Amino acid sequence: MPHIRPVSDLRNNFSEISRIVHETTEPVFLTKNGYGDMVVMSIEAYERKLFQSEIYFKLKEAELEARASDKRLSHEEVFSDLKARLANKTDGEDV
């Protein structure tokens, strides 16, 4: 169930809101005059959302690229290429 509080609670009950966002890892939605105004979340929850968003974007990008090309690589080819790139990086070469 979402946590919805008036924006005045941010000033009057900051410690409680801080506790909620850290213990539940869920955001608190703040309202102003009965309408949604802002969201408060812990840094950990925010970073997790960013990471999930980045993964989603990269997967969508890969899906679009796959649709535009008939070329497919096996996992052996992908891992072989990655290992070669990592080996070059550790040798001081940029890939």
Short characterization:
The protein has 95 residues and is of the alpha+beta class.
Write the layout of secondary structure elements.
Elements: E1 3-6, H1 8-12, H2 14-24, E2 28-32, E3 35-40, H3 43-68, H4 75-90
Parallel strand pairs: 1-2
Antiparallel strand pairs: 2-3
Provide structural commentary.
This protein is an alpha+beta fold and 95 residues long. It folds into two domains: 3-41, YefM-like domain (YefM-like fold), CATH 3.40.1620.10; 45-90. It has four helices and three strands; from the N terminus they run βααββαα. It has a three-stranded mixed β-sheet with strand order 1-2-3. β2 and β3 form a beta hairpin. It is elongated, with a radius of gyration of 22 Å. The termini are far apart.
How many helices does DSSP assign? 4
Q: Which structural class should the secondary elements be placed in?
A: alpha+beta
Strand content: 15-25%
Tell me the number of structural domains.
2
Element-by-element helix/strand order: EHHEEHH
Cα(first) to Cα(last) distance is 48 Å
- Average pLDDT across residues? 91
Q: What is the CA-atom radius of gyration, in angstroms?
A: 22 Å
Trace the largest sheet across and list its strands.
1-2-3
Q: Helix fraction?
A: 55-70%
Total strands: the figure is 3
